[in-house]
């Protein structure tokens, strides 16, 4: 492929690839092109092993623009490696890592200025040796597997995206939009990224260090009774919630309630309630102008001191410092 002017973005295609991983970034880059006309210089090409249609995990078929071989013949500004998963008989998630695809990723990376992965695409980068000695993220559901399979990679399951030199890794599927905005900001500045975000009706960007999942989603229960209790806690998080209250709601004894939480969620009722309150407080601090005192009340902490102690214990910071670092800019 002859070299082209501007920023050539190549997105890797393969059977079963997640559809949004592939279609999300081009939408963001196309808006950057519209907002800046020729200044952005983005050109997006979809590359696969052959030019045959590729069937995504959603069942939608996509036509590649070029082959891997032709893409590797030129210079690439940004390589985007999406991911795909499969499920075993017990519905456990496993990333798809096909050796031949890994080899092509390694070859293409050698022709690329900036390498990125979306969601479980990080497993392909890791298998190609591109994450060794680097900090990286992926979707929380496969983070433990990434760490186990690739000990040389420092896996951090919490951030939405991580940049290590010229290698960027993104978390969940929708985080491809956040990652794409960050790439635009890196190329063209925050002002252009803001204009694109407005077109997408998004925040300018979620900070790269912001958590990719919430506490209530992180801990998955297996019984209807615990699920009901979890929803009850969420609905009444601003109110006093004691073990006695929850036990009465669930029609069990205090001791039995504690045993249920330990068995199903691996924690105590008190610790779980605090984790949910901290998560709600994080959201309020990131997205609202409520005072710290008001946040403490809304989230059921009662006093500011209790809120501060919970933040220090769970996040090793204070509510004020957390807001300073992670406050999401409000789009007019």
Q: Strands of the largest sheet, in order across it?
A: 5-2-1-6-9-13-12
Order of helices and strands: EHEEEEHEEEHEHEHEEEHHHHHHHHHH
Quaternary structure classification = single chain
**Which class do the helix and strand fractions yield?**
alpha/beta
Shape: globular
Question: Beta-strand level of the residues, as a percent range?
Answer: 5-15%
Total count of helical runs of at least 4 residues:
15
Gyration radius over CA:
22 Å
- β-strand number: 13
Q: Tell me about the largest β-sheet.
A: 7 strands, mixed
- Give helix % range: 40-55%
**pLDDT under 50 segments (min length 5)?**
1-5, 203-208, 212-222
Alpha-carbon distance between the termini?
Answer: 43 Å
Mean pLDDT: 86
Could you provide a short overview of the structure?
The chain is of the alpha/beta class and 332 residues long. Helix content is 46%, strand content 15%.
List keywords for this structure.
7-stranded mixed sheet; 332 residues; two-stranded antiparallel ribbon; alpha/beta
